Amino acid sequence: MQKTLALFIAALLLGVANAAAQVHVHVHVHVDANANANAAVTQHFTDKDRQEVKDIFLRQASAATAHEIEAFEHVLASAPAGQPDPIAFVAYAYQFWGKPALIDHFKETFKGVWKFEPDVQSIKIIPLTADVAQIYAPTQITRGTSEASAKSAPFLVYEVAIRTPEGWRISAIVPVSAP
Fold this sequence. Notes:
Largest sheet: 7 strands, mixed
Number of strands: 7
Radius of gyration: 17 Å
Strand content: 25-35%
Shape: globular
Number of helices: 4
Structural class: alpha+beta
Distance between the termini: 15 Å
Oligomer: single chain
Order of helices and strands: HHHEEHEEEEE
């Protein structure tokens, strides 16, 4: 099971890294086309990047717990015109490919109880490239159709953030049930 999960995550990362590379190329084309602009292309993952990735993850958690679908949607990566949708959400019970499918899922989920509460002190941000970072966050998720039926459970939430022209955004979410 762990080997299968590891292989799946590796395959997912390769797809996300490819989407991030396409976004990164888009940024380079934009910068080259606007050579007079004072835009700087980051060549290394910095402490500022680490904080921005953590901030976008915490904005996601806040928007999800508050059931603010527009704020939740805003933290997710959008594909540049003509590029593949970089969003993937893979859980034990279901998978959603693409931003519209994921937003539709959470519109329904947010009709009930949904709390997404990461252990902020335990969040790990691990860069893969200057434009792609992994997020690991032990998280308590409470869900149910009502307060009376809601159940809380621990998860290790694994996510991938990519640098976009709008800043860091989430492109992959993989909640793994924790013991």
